[in-house]
């Protein structure tokens, strides 16, 4: 740390992204990326946009916002596109959290929530998940803060129903409830249709997972017009050109190729079912996942040990050295061939020990 670093960041512990190794080629099942390449239309549109990079992009992101809104069945004024959904989440911490409305989220969830709270100097409270890692909605009925829930949750993969989320929304009319739907396209019902009914609901989604665009950084928030206006105030006070031209164009390309996205989601879900079956047969406990990853533990091996042995054998998964979940590994669903390699390698590791 330099002697110039502001003391307001004394306590800040940055988010640690999953490894992006360069030295060796791994079967990469650690950052919940899609195993499929971007849509050919996304690539073609982005290439065309590359020829205009001397110009700033449209700060309103008008055309893409209209397309996303029409896909969701809402008005463009109810949508804000951002640089990954991480950016809309950070904007929500900036816009809707303070000493009077601290951030509230589960103790086991997306690690960035805690970092955003610290970055923005916002008090936060973590509500423990149940023993089986489900969210007890009753624990969110009498809060006095801005609630952040990943649905389905990460890294557990477990989802709440829309009816359960609606209970939380009803019980918290004085505070914003952010529902982070990064993994919604792999089998969960979206809360987007509730935005007209609840002016305290902000839903966030991403193009990173189901649309194979993690490298382009594109996400969005959906909520009532007033909430989106607040988030725009924050956006225009930080980075008006938050979506670059190539990403904007790639976004339009993938939305013009919805059948490709749907087919990829179906493939991921089918591979998820097969991989879960294989893990159960190998003696793992595996939660029923609604995402593009599985969260699993083996009775005989710790998570750190499994992570290390898999890595030695050329397979990267994610391990969180965190209370309650040290025994688990999180496995991204890759292509069916990659998952075959993963299961075979795992079987060998278990047999050798
Ligand atoms: N929410 C959750 C629950 C996630 O797991 C992720 C991916 N790390 C994100 C949000 C952010 O994804 P992105 O910024 O790529 O849209």
Topology:
Elements: E1 27-28, H1 40-50, H2 62-72, E2 79-82, H3 84-96, E3 103-106, H4 112-119, E4 124-127, E5 146-150, H5 162-171, E6 177-180, E7 201-206, E8 219-223, H6 225-236, H7 245-255, H8 258-281, E9 284-286, E10 293-298, H9 303-312, E11 315-316, E12 328-332, H10 336-352
Parallel strand pairs: 1-11, 3-4, 3-5, 5-6, 6-7
Antiparallel strand pairs: 2-8, 7-8, 9-10, 10-12
This protein binds 4'-deoxy-4'-aminopyridoxal-5'-phosphate (PMP).
Structure overview:
The chain is of the alpha/beta class. The chain folds into two domains: 8-37 and 259-352, Aspartate Aminotransferase, domain 1 (Alpha-Beta Complex), CATH 3.90.1150.10; 40-257, 3-Layer(aba) Sandwich (Aspartate Aminotransferase, domain 2). The chain is 36% helix and 14% strand. It is built from ten helices and twelve strands. It has helices at 40-50, 62-72, 84-96, 112-119, 162-171, 225-236, 245-255, 258-281, 303-312, 336-352; strands at residues 27-28, 79-82, 103-106, 124-127, 146-150, 177-180, 201-206, 219-223, 284-286, 293-298, 315-316, 328-332. Helix 4 (112-119) links the parallel strand 3 (103-106) and strand 4. It is globular, with a radius of gyration of 20 Å. The N and C termini lie far apart (43 Å).
């Amino acid at each position: 740390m330099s002697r110039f670093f502001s003391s307001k960041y004394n306590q800040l512990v940055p988010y640690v992204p999953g490894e992006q190794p360069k030295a060796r080629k791994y079967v990469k099942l650690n950052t919940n990326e899609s195993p499929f390449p971007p849509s050919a239309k996304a690539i073609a549109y982005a290439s065309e946009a590359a020829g205009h990079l001397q110009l700033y992009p449209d700060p309103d992101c008008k055309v893409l916002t209209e397309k996303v809104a029409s896909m969701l069945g809402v008005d463009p004024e109810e949508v804000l596109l951002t640089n990954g959904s991480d950016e809309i989440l950070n904007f929500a911490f900036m816009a809707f959290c303070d000493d009077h409305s601290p951030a509230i989220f589960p103790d086991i969830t997306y690690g960035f929530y805690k970092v955003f709270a610290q970055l923005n100097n916002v008090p936060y409270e973590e509500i423990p998940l149940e023993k089986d890692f489900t969210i007890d909605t009753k624990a969110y009925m009498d809060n006095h803060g801005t609630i952040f829930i990943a649905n389905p949750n990460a890294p557990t993969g477990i989802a709440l129903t829309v009816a359960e989320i609606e209970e939380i929304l009803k019980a918290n009319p004085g505070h914003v409830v952010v529902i982070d739907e990064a993994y919604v396209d792999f089998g969960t019902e979206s809360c987007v249709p509730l935005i007209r009914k609840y002016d305290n609901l902000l839903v966030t989604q991403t193009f990173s997972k189901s649309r194979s665009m993690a490298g382009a950084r594109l996400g969005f928030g959906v909520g009532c017009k007033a909430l989106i206006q607040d988030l725009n105030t924050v956006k225009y006070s930080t980075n008006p050109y938050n979506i670059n031209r190539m990403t904007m164009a790639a976004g339009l390309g993938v939305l013009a190729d919805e059948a490709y996205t749907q087919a990829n989601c179906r493939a991921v879900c089918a591979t998820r079912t097969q991989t879960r079956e294989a893990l159960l047969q190998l003696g793992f406990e595996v939660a029923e996942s609604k995402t593009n990853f599985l969260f699993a533990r083996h009775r005989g091996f710790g998570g750190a040990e499994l992570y290390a042995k898999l890595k030695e054998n050329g397979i990267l998964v994610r391990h969180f050295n965190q209370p309650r979940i040290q025994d688990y590994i999180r496995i991204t669903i890759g292509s069916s061939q990659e998952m075959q390699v993963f299961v075979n390698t795992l079987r060998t590791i278990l047999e050798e020990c």
